[in-house]
Design a protein that fits this description.
The complex is a heterodimer of chains A (649) and B (161). Chain A is an alpha+beta fold. Chain A is 39% helix and 13% strand.
């Protein structure tokens, strides 16, 4: 095959059986690759009632079909499983170099099932796979594990996915580290690996990714590259990466300060934004084939964390620890980030959990005796200790290790401080301060409280605020970006007001979900300016020339919608209820206390109405959010298991 | 003065686009293992070092080749002096691979040795480098200063591993 390797590697850790099977013939057009293949496999193989941490759960890695080629920013691999945190579709996307290596080793997807009798790791190299003992690695953190395996094979080009102690101890938000500095972070996939006694997956390959129509492909690739490099966002994102968002979040009062008690933080810009980045980093690090290289290589030269070196200083650890726990300096945030990387824990959930515990402490719901030490806001040493206790399930950490929804059940009145949606700790931006397509995405996201599955091509937190309207947001981009937007013209006219160019939030949210499914299925990174630039047209041309399988832009985006719907079906089948698609009560009941967004809270009715509009845009039942028979027929999903009770709500 | 391929380690982000475009240009496939330029990642130092043929004045590979497959070709206009392997003449003895002190000659499974030929003076890797870390230019005194500081970093990285 072209583009695809054409093979799925299927490893049963209980029996030791290793199978290599071809991808099904109709999968490429229907599910593309990556996330799409994962959704298909999980929906087929995980029946309701499966224990996420039992041997029957299945963990899948799906490499994007564009990954391993020189398509700019196409480095991504999706990992998916039944989530031990949410009980529904657990999924996470990561870049770096692991996915490309799996392709060169000969596989598009890796399926892992069963449970090894004792700790093992996988060694995958050019169509061969070994299940090897990992007793010597068990108990080691992810950095030491990677170092050990690199030493063993005498090659730092071996790409390694591994868990740290958190995954071994089945912390429900443990992640799978992708090399030392990247991760399949969200929804607890590391705990699934730990439950299977699988410590690491080391990959080295020297096979080809072949191109069906070379000249056409290289031409389109050059066009894609020119569009990305020509964007006005290319320069700033290349230098500052996601840290660009840190300043406006504070200006809009949208920080999750002290577990969403403070929308803006005094001294924030001077202590924790790109203003001070140059003190710690002057070099960038890129994922495979990415011209942007948004990540920073950080070296802390003085102070208590002198000597610390890592890929860091992105907005996520900053919001989690710098705002959520109010840790007031970047070196300490870097230390906490490193700790999460080494222990193998999702830094969004980790920051959220520690922030939650700090708020309980602030309110006197928990005491120093219960915790073992004071949990004061901003006390980085306390956060460090707590992270270690969570990863090892020690003392109070054992309660937090089950995620904020479960942890809150241990204490009276604690649920209202548990900031989660569908069991997934919220990504750290406050929707009360700035309502947008992005924040609506927290509740429409198929994996729970997180924004990344509904990023839209004109999101612009940097430029404006959106205090009141629930249904629209201002478009503040240059006309060039509007005109060049890769979106079918009729839809463009539906989503944007022709005069003001105001964005229709529910309709854009649907488009964003479908488009991100395409991104996650093809292996493309959603970081702007890629997000602003590359849509179904470029994807259809890249895909068709690469694989030789012709797909129109309409077919590409329809595949994205199919994948989104299939995951929704999976979730409903595994117990997701309509009422789960809602914000934590704090956002409705408590107004932002200070800063530019002071006094704002969400209106329950308005949110309900906008969600209805979103369901309507999706062709789902307006009340239940169930994909109806017509929509399923349109997507060729009407044959899916019908044990879903449409009227059970 | 002839031009050389060199890398600014402060600018290289390790994206390996150079490896991908090189393998596509010369082998019609994306496959870093067949790329003539390789980027070594010092994982814990956060440095990425592109390594590629230096086109030695006294090329050991040329000297040991028993088949006359390795020649030095000049294009004065373009400032190119390239030590090149003829795939057709190569007998696959691998002597050049043993002789190269830098690991810059590779054996391709089809049965021949392969190395950088500077793409006739317009190297694909340089064109593809978004950060302009890879350069193809003449050696000058100021450039030597940069090379020295680069070499110091390579040495430091080497000594730390």
């Amino acid at each position: 095959m072209h583009g695809y390797s054409g093979k799925i590697l299927d490893v049963n850790l209980t029996s030791g059986e290793i199978k290599m099977r071809p991808i099904e013939q109709d999968w490429p057009k229907k599910y593309l690759s990556g996330l799409g293949f994962n959704a298909r496999i999980l929906h087929d193989e995980i029946p309701p009632g499966t224990d996420p941490l039992g041997p029957d759960n299945v963990l899948v890695f799906g490499v994007g079909v564009l990954t391993g080629t020189a398509v700019p920013s196409a480095s991504r691999t999706e990992a998916s499983s039944l989530s031990p945190l949410t009980g529904t579709f657990g999924t996470s996307n990561s870049g770096s170099h692991w996915g490309g290596e799996l392709k060169y080793a000969g596989f598009d997807s890796l399926v892992i099932r069963g449970k090894a009798a004792s700790p093992v790791y996988l060694w995958i190299s050019n169509n061969s796979v070994d299940i090897l003992p990992a007793g010597h690695l068990w108990g080691k953190d992810s950095w030491d594990t990677i170092r050990e395996i690199h030493k063993q094979y005498n090659d730092e080009g071996v790409q390694i996915a591994t868990i740290g102690q958190a995954g071994e101890n089945m912390v429900r938000f443990a992640c799978i580290e992708n090399g030392p500095y990247d991760a399949w972070g969200r929804t607890g996939l590391g705990a699934v690996m730990g439950s299977k006694n699988l410590k690491a997956i080391a990959v080295r390959g020297s096979g080809p990714v072949r191109v069906a129509r070379k000249q056409e492909f290289l031409g389109t690739l050059a066009e894609t590259r020119a569009a990305i490099l020509g964007s006005p966002f290319f320069g700033p994102v290349s230098r500052f990466g996601s840290l660009l968002a840190a300043t406006p979040f504070n200006e809009h009062g949208a920080l999750p300060g002290r577990n969403y008690q403070k929308g803006s933080i005094e001294g924030w810009t001077e202590t924790r934004t790109r203003k001070v980045l140059h003190k710690y980093s002057n070099r960038n690090v890129g994922c495979m084939a990415c011209p942007i290289a948004c990540a920073h290589w950080v070296e802390i030269k003085e102070g208590p964390y002198a000597g610390l070196r890592l890929k860091d200083m992105e907005v996520t650890p900053l919001l989690s620890f710098g705002a959520g726990c109010d840790v007031d300096n970047l070196p300490a945030v870097a230390k906490l980030h490193e700790t999460c990387q080494r222990l193998g824990m999702d830094m969004v959930s980790s920051g959220n959990l520690v922030g939650f515990a700090m708020e309980l402490y602030q309110r006197g719901i928990i005491s120093e005796q219960e915790v073992g030490f004071p949990l004061q806001w901003g006390d980085e040493k306390a956060v460090l200790s707590m992270l270690d206790m969570i990863a090892h399930r020690k003392g109070f950490g054992d309660i937090l290790a089950d995620g904020v929804k479960r942890a809150a059940r241990h204490f009276p009145e604690a649920s209202k401080y548990a900031m989660e949606i569908k069991g997934l700790e919220c990504f750290q931006v406050d929707p009360r301060a700035r309502w947008s397509t992005w924040t609506l995405g927290f509740i429409t996201n198929i994996r729970g409280g997180d924004d990344l599955r509904t990023r839209n091509p004109v999101e612009n937190l940097r430029f404006n605020e959106n205090p009141v309207p629930y249904f629209t947001e201002k478009f503040n981009f240059p006309d060039d970006i509007y005109n060049g937007l890769d979106m079918p013209e009729p839809l463009k006219k539906e989503i944007f007001d022709p005069e003001t160019k105001d964005v229709n939030i529910p309709k854009m949210n649907k488009w964003a979900g479908d488009l991100m499914s395409v991104y996650n299925s093809l292996g493309m990174c959603m970081r702007p300016p890629v997000l602003h630039t590359v849509g179904p047209t470029l994807f259809s041309r890249l895909y068709s020339a690469l694989t030789g399988i012709d797909m129109t832009p309409e077919e590409i985006i329809l595949a994205g919608e199919r994948i989104w719907n299939l995951i929704k079906l999976f979730n409903i089948r595994h117990g997701e209820k309509p009422s789960d698609c809602d914000f934590p009560s704090r956002f409705y009941e408590e107004a932002v206390s200070a800063g530019p967004a002071a006094g704002r809270k969400l209106d329950r009715e308005q949110v309900k109405n906008v969600l209805k509009e979103y369901y309507k845009a999706r062709g789902w039942d307006e009340e239940t959010g169930m994909p109806g028979p017509e929509k399923l027929a349109e997507l060729d999903l009407h044959q899916e298991p019908q044990n879903i009770k449409f009227n059970s709500f | 003065m002839y031009k050389i391929l060199s890398a600014d380690l402060e600018k290289c982000t390790g994206c390996r686009t150079c490896e991908l475009v090189c393998s596509m240009k010369h082998h019609d496939e994306y496959n870093p293992q067949k790329s003539r330029i390789r980027v070594y990642n010092f994982v814990e130092q956060g440095y990425f070092v592109p390594v590629v043929c230096l086109h030695c004045n006294e090329a050991y590979c040329e000297k040991v080749c028993p088949a006359g497959a390795i020649t030095v070709n000049y294009d004065e206009k373009k400032g190119v002096r390239a030590v090149q392997i003829s795939k057709e003449k190569c007998v696959g003895c691998k002597m050049c691979i043993f002789a190269c002190p830098f690991g810059n000659v590779r054996f391709i499974e089809d049965g021949y040795s392969d190395k950088c030929d500077l793409c006739g003076g317009d190297p694909e890797c340089v064109k593809s480098c978004a950060k302009e870390a890879l350069k193809f230019k003449e050696v000058s005194a100021s450039y030597m200063q940069k090379i020295k500081s680069t070499a110091e970093k390579i040495l430091a990285a080497y000594q730390q591993t």
